[in-house]
Structure formats: structure tokens, C-alpha cells
Amino acid sequence: MGSPERDCTMESIQIKTDSQRTLCINDDESRWITFDTEDLNFYARLKDLYQKLTVKQNEFLAKEKEISSIEGVDDNGASLAALALVDLQTEFAKTVTDGMDEVFGAGTCQRLFGDAFNPAAYGELIKAIMTYISRDREKKMKAALKKKPSDKKVMS
């Protein structure tokens, strides 16, 4: 099926969507992120990312303990433990940024944070998004509970 011919008359429906949110970081409109608080597919992707990051964090903590026992220095005198820790942190940062880009679209992390990776900043962003989702869903549920049963129509 292709698109309708240009000379055909198409009818349009208007779908009310007031659940689209756009947030910017520190009042900088060039650092924005958009999401729909009622999009269940978005929520599933975000939840999946959260679960992946939880697993990754647990792996990170276990590897961090192993790394702390590494002794010695490389040819330049740098601590082998410190170098291994940097590698581990870099791996974690890549997991987070790749996951965020999967959820929000390619290039999102670059637009929001440039080349910087601050775990606390990413955590604050995810927390803010979850707050908006929770708040909007709570409003919707309260509104639905206020309706009388006779007001609810499955189909008309």
C-alpha cells in the first residue's frame, strides 16, 4: 500500500495529545529532550534501560572490587588499577549513553551533555522524566476515578 494520490481528498482526524513533554537542561533551550508521558512503548524502553543499568551497576561494583586488588604500574608509571578503573568507568558511560540514545533517539546524549559524562547528571535527568510520567499518570487516574460509572463508554 502506497500513499494516497495527491488529487484525492483525505480526511483528517485530530487526536488530542497533551502528554508530550519537552525539558531543557539548566534553561538552555539547545539542550532539550522530548517524550510522551502516555507512550507505553517509550515507558517500556525506559524501564528496560533502567533494568540494564541496574545490572551494569552491580557488575561495575563487583569488577571495581577486583580492580582494587590489582598491583603494579605500566611502563609509564601509571597505576594498573587506576587504568583498569578508567576502562571500567568508560565502559559504563558507553552503556548509559548508548542506552539513552536508544530510548530517546540517536544524538540525544551529545545534544544534552556534549562529550561529558557525569553519572549524577544522567541520574537527575532520568529522575525528572520518571517524575513527569508518574505525575501525569496519577492525574489521569484521578480523573478517571472521579467519573461516574455511567459516564464511561467503551464504544459508542
Task: Provide a brief overview of the structure.
This protein is mainly α and 156 residues long. The chain is built from 4 helices and 2 strands; from the N terminus they run E-E-H-H-H-H. It has a domain at 38-136.
Describe the protein in words.
α1 (40-68) packs antiparallel against α2 (80-104). This protein has helices at 40-68, 80-104, 108-113, 119-146; strands spanning 20-25, 28-36. It is built from four helices and two strands, in the order ββαααα. The model has no long low-confidence stretch (mean pLDDT 89). Strands 1-2 form a two-stranded antiparallel ribbon. It has a domain at 38-136. The longest helix has 29 residues, at 40-68. The protein is mainly alpha-helical and 156 residues long. β1 and β2 (28-36) form a beta hairpin. 56% of the residues lie in helices and 10% in strands.
What's the Cα radius of gyration?
Answer: 23 Å
Which geometry do the CA atoms define?
A: elongated
Strand content: 5-15%
Spans with pLDDT under 50 lasting ≥5 residues? Answer: none
Q: Main sheet, how many strands, which sense, barrel?
A: 2 strands, antiparallel
Strand order of the largest sheet: 1-2
Q: What is the β-strand count?
A: 2
